[in-house]
Amino acid sequence: MKAKHLVALFGLFIGLIFAGTPARASGQNIDKKVDALLKRMTLKEKVGQMTQITLSVVSQKRPDGSFENKLDLKKLREAIVDHGVGSILNTGGAANTAKNWQEMINTMQKIATQETRLGIPIIYGIDAIHGSNYIKEATLFPQSIAMAATWNRELVRKEGEITALETRAVGIPWNFNPVLGLGRQPLWSRIWETYGEDSYAAAQFGREYIWGLQGKDGNVARDDRVAACMKHYAGYSVPLSGHDRTPAWIPERIMRELFLPPFHAAVQAGVLTAMVNSGEVNGIPTHANGFLLKTVLRNEWKFAGLVVSDWADVVNLYKRDHVAESPKEAVRLAVEAGLDMSMVPFDYSFADYLLQLVQEGTIPESRIDASVRRILRVKFKLGLFDDPFAHAERLARIGRKEHKMVSLQAAREAITLLKNDGNLLPLNSTAKVLVTGPTANAKSVLNGGWTYIWQGNDERYYPQEDKTVLQAIRDELGENRVTYVPGTTIDKVLDISEAVRAAQNADVIVACIGEAAYCETPGNINDLALPQAQIDLVSALEETGKPVVLVLLEGRPRVIRPIADKAQAILMAYLPGPQGSVALAEILTGKVNPSGKLPITYPRYVNDLMCYDYKYSEAYDVNRYHPQWPFGYGLSYTHFSYDNLQLSAEKLKMNTPLKVRVTVTNSGKRPGKEAVLLYVSDLVRSVTPPVRRLKGFRKISLQPGESRTVEFTLSPQDLAFVNKNNRWTVEAGTFTVHVGPLSKTFELLR
């Protein structure tokens, strides 16, 4: 079934099920309810609403390898009834069955609504970042870096819709996603959670994903919708050291021009919540940064939603960052900076300290009221006061076949062909294949972190029906045509000599290399180079003279310069999700024509980490932009030609949109999809310009010989930049539009 038909059928399916869902309550009506409830609340109840604890605080010890948690009812009542906790999060150690989730959520909500004085429901939050990855039966998707490589807005929105449907089905109404940091530091262990290095692309994909979760109409009371949480606001993604949760240095002008726009776009898209950057920017921990949390977010952008801390980051102002003299002062700093809810997460200290701070007059109760009002407003918008419970009949919505087909289509469109000398791919229909490498026969390497467990690295939790790359290739080619020798682990040699011997009887070698699963700080590395054991394996195989196909399964671009030149074909698979193995086998055999393009620059050297939108001085004199592969690069089994680039004007008045048209033709012999990317260069301006910036993209599908005219509209904002005074501005001058190999220049008049 073709992808567009799959997407259309999915939309019809959703529409039929939810045609009768309740309409969103009006904002004015909600505000009246919030104000009435707030007047009845004690100070202790208010600070309880601002407290978020993790599930393990209120659950029993979980058996290793289990898919179920059991609540400790005494501890649960202590949290909800005695301390008035407003929110609970996390998994209790690993994914749970959908039924177990429903049972736990219903128990929590029954206690909250029936055993407390005011009956305020809790809001449960979860990190469902590539599908509902903590529900055992749920549909998982490629990680965000791979979703960006599809350049397909519709697929990103569908991911959001399916994630919301399956997450809300178990009674969880709050998803801590999307990640809107920019992946501009390749060492960083969370780059695969981003939509890549470009600000415009991150804003576009983030908006689509938010609309998928919340609906474009913002009616999150529907039982197929959840509240989105933009994170990590802001500047988290470019630690100077490359290590997670370490300092970033970002001047305000660069922050406003590059790192804030995706978050601003999320606010404009109606995102209901925000999570704060765990690190620091320019020496100021973001949890104590009133400029970002109040001046920009609240005052400039008019964000009215809920701001939640990241894990233990309020107390970290004292324990780690040394800007507070005590845990109590850390609470003061965070609340005064603009925090609404603290992910404490293991105790009730935040509420206790906050209560003291108000009672002693350090923080006015009106400040507490402001946060609690925002928390209650989100709960009312989600319909939790009307029905906070999970319903058994909704279990049938989880893990449906049509959902998995959308995930498969995303993997097909994400995988990026980086090299194909002599048209080695697709493989000859009779070729005998040696499959080798440490990522060939594991499921976790397809998914990465946030998969069933935090690190995603325990194969016991992966479904039996999911296939490794080896299994998918064997299913596609037949057992008798495929030989497997692992060769190495991720970083240790096993049997390279045996792999070399096996290569003698093969026509083609498929070497699956890359990274083991990881997440956050445990994923820190000090060297971007691929581990030497894998380099040695591939080098030895290349010396056999047999053609080598490299399959890169990795969350960040590990440097492969020593083996890239001799490999005949290279596929970047990113972290393509559980369906990624099937998609890879289909691409290797030609059933699917690859159409992904890099959303990041792939570096050639470990110390040459220039992004695509570099400054002219970075490519001046002896300097040059010389990556292994540039941002936006990706090959196909067919050929696309570009011609007839047209601009609606060669001289443009200020504040006037510009129409751009280009004709794209499939001049090859196979059907294919092409991501058409549009860049703009500002040739001269008062602050040094980048050589180009992405300002538009479209994914199109063309049959052999078919042509299509693709149209873009450039707005005045697309020509703007942040000036010396840290304000957005547009200056008259000369600009160049680039699409494919074509370019045209126009003049913007004063």
Describe what you observe in this structure:
The protein is α/β, with parallel strands linked by helices and about 750 residues long. The protein has 3 domains: about 5-395, Glycoside hydrolase, family 3, N-terminal domain (TIM Barrel, Alpha-Beta Barrel), CATH 3.20.20; about 415-620, 3-Layer(aba) Sandwich (Rossmann fold), CATH 3.40.50; about 640-750, Immunoglobulins (Immunoglobulin-like), CATH 2.60.40. The protein has 21 helices and 26 strands.
List the helices and strands and how they pair.
Blueprint: H1 3-17, H2 27-40, H3 43-49, E1 51-54, H4 73-82, E2 87-89, H5 98-114, E3 123-126, H6 144-150, H7 153-169, E4 174-175, H8 199-214, E5 229-233, H9 252-259, H10 261-268, E6 273-276, E7 280-281, E8 284-285, H11 290-300, E9 306-308, H12 316-319, H13 327-337, E10 342-343, H14 349-359, H15 365-381, H16 401-414, E11 416-420, E12 433-436, H17 469-477, E13 482-485, H18 496-503, E14 508-514, H19 532-542, E15 548-553, H20 561-564, E16 569-574, H21 580-589, E17 640-647, E18 651-652, E19 658-666, E20 672-682, E21 693-702, E22 707-714, E23 721-722, E24 728-729, E25 733-739, E26 742-748
Parallel strand pairs: 1-2, 1-10, 2-3, 3-4, 5-6, 6-9, 12-13, 12-14, 14-15, 15-16, 18-26
Antiparallel strand pairs: 7-8, 11-16, 17-19, 19-22, 20-21, 20-25, 23-24, 25-26
Helix pairs in contact: 1-16, 2-15, 3-14, 3-15, 6-16, 7-8, 7-16, 8-10, 13-14, 16-21, 17-21, 18-19
Primary descriptors:
alpha/beta; 750 residues; five-stranded parallel beta sheet; Immunoglobulin-like; TIM Barrel; 21 helices; disordered N terminus; six-stranded mixed beta sheet; 3 domains; Rossmann fold; 31% helix
